Protein: Aldehyde dehydrogenase
Organism: Ferruginivarius sediminum
Amino acid sequence: MSDLQTREEYQAIAASLTPAATAFVDGAFRPARSGKTFASTNPATGETLAEVAACQAEDVDFAVRKAREAFDDGRWRCKAPAERKDILIRLAKLLHRNRHELAVLESLDSGKPIRDCATVDVPDTINTLKWHAEAIDKLYDQSAPVGEDAMALIVREPIGVAACVLPWNFPLMMLAWKIGPALASGCSVIVKPAEQTSLSALRVAELAMEAGLPAGVLNVVTGDGPGAGEPLGLHGDVDMVSFTGSTETGRRFLRYSADSNLKKVVLECGGKNPAIVTDDAEDLDLVAEHVTNAAFWNMGENCSATSRLIVHEAAKAPLMERILARARDWRTGDPLDPANHLGALVDRGHFDKVCGYLEHGRAEAEVVLGGQGADGYVEPTIFDAVDRESRLAREEIFGPVLSVITVRSADEAVTIANDSPYGLAASVFSANGKRALRTARAVRAGTVTVNCYGEGDITTPFGGYKQSGFGGRDNGLQAHDQYTELKTIWIDLSDRGPTDAVD
Ligand SMILES: NC(=O)C1=CN([C@@H]2O[C@H](COP(=O)(O)OP(=O)(O)OC[C@H]3O[C@@H](n4cnc5c(N)ncnc54)[C@H](O)[C@@H]3O)[C@@H](O)[C@H]2O)C=CC1
Ligand code: BAL
């Protein structure tokens, strides 16, 4: 049954909110030491939602010190696994109890449509935390096959202080994708939300205290990239950074690491994701449904959005007719109206960037749908006859823009799909099982879906090849690898005496 409320109910919740907007460190809300703030605005209205603490290096230092203390004294990592599990499950329950408020906060701060915040973002956040919490007391260490004279234990230990640097497109979901496994592993965590969308992370940190998470274990440092992100990346006492965002900023984190303490860096970056439709694709209604969702869901502000439709010439006309029919039904407007599929883009800067691509597309390709933006909103847009060398075909637009490229064979489709610096996600539509699987194998991307579109689920690792990712995966038990170190403990079992042992 749908959990959606009416627009009026959402508006009433919005009117009742007084979001916390200072940093959250060592169990308490704290302003930036400088006293500086920046406005967090509702991109749909331009209204200021809160003045958020503009943290800088000194605030980051304090947060790292508190996180380190919490890690070193073992108040979290040394708790019995079942107790840590219970606290995180309590947090998941508190998120569920506050789900309408969280969905509204997320929608107001980011421009995302409430229908998605309520039915996807918040439920996925809760499920992710629950799933990692449940794993805590079910993961076993290993013993290596080293023979009779020794025993070698391979144990997994929390890495220490983990910094989670978040994007603005899925503020809650990305928070959960990172703090879920980080906290489950026993780390202390410092979250740096994107400056556009700080509010939901602060609320989650507050609820985590209510759930019983010890102070200092989950901290949120608000601020922009150069002010708060850079000092985190350069900090000598941060053990790892898990980052989601642009490839350009991802590169910076590698440099920060090289210039400081060689902290582990895991990057989940951009994508230019192809959907390949072969000449034998069946059920074009279903294909059209998947491609429309993949391209326009979350206003295309999604690293795994399908932004290139690579379609065989034989399937193109009937498929395009079906995609257009669906996309025309997607309503754009007030994010708090559950009837709307698309809300506002995250901020004016990003809106202007997407509009720049629309202008380019109008000049270089054939507009078959949309093609204009107004007042922070961009309607679903489809460009046909896109040149595979053009900016539309190669650059991440991060808006509701689909570029169509026509091909004459499956091999040509794969060549074009792989002709990209990115390799995050792809989908393949073909009724021929062998061909579909061969194509899925040939595409260089971290997630390839067959006859559907998606990102897998919490049980499957998510991340990219090439410049889409580096160093690890989110989701699945593989996500725990990010936040843990492996230690070998070698125990001598031989009956040689000490003199023999050094011979
Ligand atoms: N893979 C993904 O999910 C995302 C991709 N993007 C892509 O990136 C483009 C630009 O968006 P931005 O908001 O500028 O992304 P961004 O990569 O700059 O921001 C992501 C995070 O990095 C932080 N950051 C920014 N500059 C930093 C610096 N110099 N040092 C340390 N931290 C820094 C930000 O404060 C934010 O928390 C988008 O148009 C889109 O193409 C953006 C967000 C998410
Ligand atoms: N779609 C999940 C990852 C991201 O867009 O940032």
